[in-house]
Each structure stands twice: as structure tokens, then as C-alpha cells.
Design goal:
The protein is 56% helix and 12% strand. It is built from 17 helices and twelve strands. α2 runs antiparallel to α3. The longest helix is centred in the middle third of the chain and has 52 residues, at 182-233.
């Protein structure tokens, strides 16, 4: 491959001739320079800096130490003139490089020719080969071969050889030296050709290495682009972490799951993003067999499953963190569940509710009869109580099937909670001093009033069942959430609390520890919250049970969250 084609390929990869740090504002984007990218011109600039240094050294040596040197021993005026011309030409070529007035190959050829001419003149003015100035052409030929990527290297060697041979021949003809001077001159010419050939060979190696590196760079860039496209197209969130937990790469799904803005910079470490993720990464590094529970992301209320996959040969290296959105799976399961509930509730409404009403009515009539003994009354009461329980269960299932019919609005929680406490205490015959309401005046809640009333009714019914039934046994508290658009409603009682072994089953349908319960209250409450883009969870507490509803302040964001879950 020729140096010109390599240069064009390199230029194509860079796109344009950018500015070179330290040397001018930049290379002009002319057609003459388009074939040679900035590295060529930078090398040529460094070569001229070397020429300036050599010219200054040759001139200064004669001016300061002229009597003690071989330099300028034959013709001082010719030497000084050649040295000054050499120095001026080097400065002029630096200006030409910055201006880009002449093509690269032309400038290189003129610079080498100037070196050959002026150094040959200084050789003649210093008495020929005994001045050793001919050796100065060796670095010039080597630099020209490397800078020009091997092109014209042998031509420059021929030019230098003819110049020194011509100088020796002129000196011999003019009787200034003997013909024996042709031998060292010939050896020097052999050195010129050897240097040029070596520079040519090394330049070819450089060109081949650059082409190979360019091809590898293109392959790596292509693979990186493919990897990026694959990562971005994944349904799971992806975070690429190094061994210290710093985030190297992330996809858009991870940004959505974790509540990051797409235009923001990636955080320095995963600890800054979410401390619980940083703690899980540390635990996984200590024990790669660790299995983690589902994680509720407070910023987005998304439930995710975390999975670490090692890279760089083990857990002590980096890892790829996969974030699986469980809400998507739950949404699919919910669609199946809603379809099944629709069929179930239709059958319940026609096949069960009417017979239950008849049985309950018959039991009520029998209880009104006179002359019943205590055993008969007890049996009839059992029939009545259980039929009423079945009717409540049917009613709750029917309400569950209609839970998505909501009128979401933004309202202040304080008057709502005060009204709710009055209605609950009146309906359940609970002393009103049992409740303590703690609400800030600047907070708002975005929810459906009727559905929030139903959620709180279920939670407060459970709290009243298990609390100490003393003043202040049940606390209704409203606090700010983790993000500015979140608000938390807490229902806290002073009862015995919840057995940790039963906590995983709390929100399962038909699970209850109360003899008269249906096991649908908490299940329905969570389903309502999920349908509105909110969450309902049971938190750890030193005392009694602590349930928290996390909902939105802003109507638009809450509606988007609700629509996303419904889809």
C-alpha cells in the first residue's frame, strides 16, 4: 500500500485536518493538504524545528569558536553565508507549513534540497570531508524517508550523493585536495543510500502498521456500535460497572427504571445512583452466589430484579448489572388475572349471590321465630354470619374488577383524612381519640378519593383489629417521599406487629389470620394502588404494623404512571 493511499485513508477516518496543538491555529483545508492529515504536517514541523536548531548551532559555533574549529577554515565568508541562508530557509519553511501555501511533498523536497545545497557549501568552505559536516545529511535523509512514508527516499540519497561527489570532484580539479578524498566521500554516499533504504523500509512498516491499526479500529468501532445497539434494544435495564462500582455504560431502559434523565451524565459510582445497588454489588463481589430479593426503586416505584454477570474474569473485576422490570411481568399477569376475574365475577353474580341472599334472608326469618332453643339460635346465627361473610367476599371481588374506573384528582390530605376518621369511627363504632392525624399543610395527594378511602378503610380495619384500642393507638401520617413528586401516607398501630414469616403472604388473595376475615382487604388495597401508579408496602417497625402508601403529587406524572401500568 502506498503512503498516499494510507494518508488518504487516515484523512478519511479523521474527517478533516484539525488544528495541531502548539503550532498555529490550524492547517488550511485546501485540496493540496487534503491528502495528508495533521500528523504528516506535525512531523514536518518538528523536522523544521530540528533544522532551525542545527542551523543556529552551526552559525553560533563559528561566530563564538571559529578559530578553534575546522569549520569555515577554507572560506569563512562562504560558510557564514551558507549558514545564514540555511537558518533563514528553515524559518521560512516553518512559516510555509503554517500557511499551507505549498503541497506537502513539494515542501519536503525543497527542504531536503536546501539541506543538501547549504550543507554541501559549508562542507566545501570547511575543507571537505575532514570537517565531518557530511554526517549532518544522514539524519536529514532518515527524517525525510520517515516523514514522507518512504517516498522519494532513494531520490534524496542520490541527490545528497551527487552533491558531495560534485564538491569532492571540484576540489580535486581545482587542486585543493587529492583524489584520495573520493574514498571517504564514497563511503559516505554508501551511508546515505543505506540510511535512505532503512528509512524506506521502516516507513513501509509504519504504513502497514497504521493500516492494520485503522482496520482494527474500524472493527472495534463496529463491534462497539453493535454492542450499543443490542444493549439499547434490551427490555432489561443494563449497567456496566467496573471493579470499583463506577458506571461505564447504561441503556435507556435502565434510565427509565431508575428515574435518570437521558441527557444527564452517568454518576461516578453506582452508590451515588442508588446506595442499595452499591451495597448489593459489594455483597455480590464477596459472594457471587448471593441471590437478592426484588428491589422497589423509590424514584420510580418500579419493582426490579437485580442480576450480576461478571466480566474481566471474575467477581473482583467488573460486572454487568441487569435490571429486570417486574412490573412488566406483573402487568401481563394482571391482564390474565383481570380476564379471569371478569369471568369469575360474572358467574358469582348470577350463580352465587342470589342463593346467598336467599339463605341469609331465610336465616333471618327463622331467627325471628319464637320458641327456638339456644342450640337452634346458635346454628342459625352461624348460617347467617357465614352467608354475610360470603356476600362481603363477592362484593369485594366485584369491586376489584371495577377498580380501574377512577376519577384521579389532586387534593389536600388533611381535610380528607379528618373526614375519613369521622366516617370510619362512626361506621365501625370506634372512639375518635384512637386516631392521631399528622399532616403538613403544604402537601397534596393525587389519587381517586373513593379508592383512597377504600384503601385506608381496609388498612384501618386491620389496625383497629390488632391495636391496643387506647387513645392514639392508630396514627395516620403524611410525609414527603424520596423524590419531590412523591408523598407517603402511613398507617401505624401499636399492636403486636406482623410475624416476619407471614410478611411475604400479606398481600396474597384469601390469606388471612382473622377467623372472620375474607383475605381480600390488603390484596384489593394493593391492586388499587398499583392501578393508580402508587405502591402499598409493609415496612419494618419496632412496634406494631406499619403500612405505607406512596403516591404522586403531580396529576400528569401520576396519570402517566397509571397508564403505563394499565398497558
Amino acid at each position: 500500500m502506498s503512503a498516499t493511499s494510507a494518508a488518504r485513508n487516515t484523512d478519511a477516518s479523521t474527517g478533516r485536518a484539525d488544528s495541531v496543538p502548539g503550532f498555529g491555529a490550524g492547517w488550511p483545508s485546501s485540496a493540496a493538504q487534503a491528502a495528508y492529515p495533521p500528523p504528516f504536517w506535525r512531523s514536518l514541523t518538528y523536522f523544521n524545528v530540528y533544522r532551525l536548531a542545527v542551523g543556529a548551532a552551526l552559525l553560533g559555533a563559528v561566530l563564538l569558536l571559529g578559530d578553534n574549529l575546522v569549520l569555515a577554515s577554507v572560506d569563512r565568508r562562504l560558510y557564514l553565508g551558507a549558514a545564514v541562508a540555511y537558518l533563514v530557509s528553515a524559518a521560512a519553511f516553518v512559516a510555509m507549513i503554517q500557511g499551507g501555501w505549498v503541497r506537502f511533498t513539494v515542501q519536503l523536497a525543497f527542504q531536503v534540497a536546501a539541506d543538501v545545497v547549504f550543507i554541501t557549501l559549508m562542507i566545501h568552505a570547511s575543507g571537505g570531508m575532514r570537517s565531518a559536516l557530511g554526517l549532518l545529511l544522514l539524519p536529514t535523509l532518515a527524517a525525510a524517508g520517515l516523514i514522507g512514508r518512504g517516498r522519494l527516499a532513494l531520490f534524496f540519497a542520490s541527490l545528497a550523493s551527487m552533491a558531495v561527489l560534485a564538491e569532492t570532484a571540484y576540489s580535486v580539479v581545482a587542486d585543493q585536495r587529492s583524489s584520495a578524498d573520493f574514498f571517504p566521500t564514497g563511503l559516505l554516499c554508501v551511508g546515505y543510500f543505506a540510511t535512505a533504504w532503512l528509512a524506506h523500509t521502516l516507513a513501509r512498516r509504519v504504513v502497514e502498521s497504521e493500516e492494520l491499526a485503522r482496520q482494527q479500529e474500524m472493527r472495534l468501532a463496529s463491534m462497539a456500535q453493535i454492542n450499543q445497539l443490542v444493549i439499547q434494544d434490551l427490555h432489561d435495564g443494563v449497567l456496566v460497572l467496573d471493579e470499583n462500582g463506577r458506571i461505564l455504560q447504561r441503556n435507556s431502559q435502565a434510565e427509565r427504571l431508575l428515574g435518570l434523565e437521558s441527557h444527564t451524565e452517568a454518576p461516578v459510582s453506582v452508590n451515588q445512583l442508588l446506595p442499595v445497588l452499591g451495597e448489593r454489588f459489594r455483597q455480590w463481589q464477596e459472594n457471587p452466589e448471593t441471590r437478592f430479593d426484588l428491589l422497589r426503586v423509590s424514584a420510580t416505584n418500579r419493582l426490579v430484579r437485580t442480576r450480576f454477570v461478571p466480566i474481566k474474569g471474575g467477581a473482583q473485576g467488573g460486572a454487568v448489572l441487569f435490571l429486570e422490570d417486574m412490573s412488566r411481568i406483573q402487568s401481563q399477569a394482571q391482564q390474565l388475572k383481570l380476564a379471569a376475574l371478569g369471568r369469575l365475577t360474572a358467574n358469582i353474580a348470577h350463580e352465587i349471590r342470589n342463593p346467598l341472599s336467599a339463605i341469609s334472608h331465610a336465616a333471618e326469618l327463622l331467627l325471628e321465630e319464637r320458641g327456638l332453643n339456644p342450640t337452634q339460635r346458635r346454628l342459625l346465627s352461624i348460617v347467617r354470619d357465614n352467608t354475610q361473610r360470603l356476600e362481603r367476599m363477592v362484593k369485594e371481588v366485584l369491586q376489584l374488577n371495577r377498580r380501574d374506573r377512577a376519577n384521579v384528582e389532586v387534593f389536600k390530605p388533611e381535610p380528607f383524612l379528618r373526614t375519613f376518621v369521622e366516617e370510619f369511627c362512626h361506621g365501625q363504632r370506634v372512639p375518635q381519640e384512637t386516631f392521631v392525624v399528622e399532616v403538613g399543610t403544604d402537601r397534596t395527594v393525587c389519587f381517586d378519593r373513593g379508592h383512597l378511602n377504600q384503601v385506608l378503610w381496609n388498612l384501618c380495619s386491620n389496625a383497629w383489629r390488632y391495636c391496643r384500642k387506647a387513645p392514639g393507638s392508630i396514627r395516620l401520617r403524611v410525609v414527603n417521599g424520596v423524590t419531590p413528586n412523591q408523598v407517603c401516607l402511613d398507617v401505624i398501630d401499636d399492636g403486636p406487629g406482623i410475624d416476619p414469616k407471614l410478611r411475604a403472604q400479606l398481600f396474597e388473595p384469601f390469606f388471612t389470620t382473622a377467623p372472620t376475615g375474607t383475605g381480600l382487604g390488603l390484596f384489593i388495597a394493593r391492586e388499587i394502588c398499583d392501578a393508580k401508579g402508587a405502591t402499598l408496602d409493609c415496612l419494618d417497625s419496632d412496634g406494631g404494623a406499619h403500612f405505607r402508601v406512596v403516591c404522586r403529587r403531580d396529576h400528569v406524572k401520576a396519570q402517566r404512571a397509571s397508564d403505563a401500568i394499565q398497558r
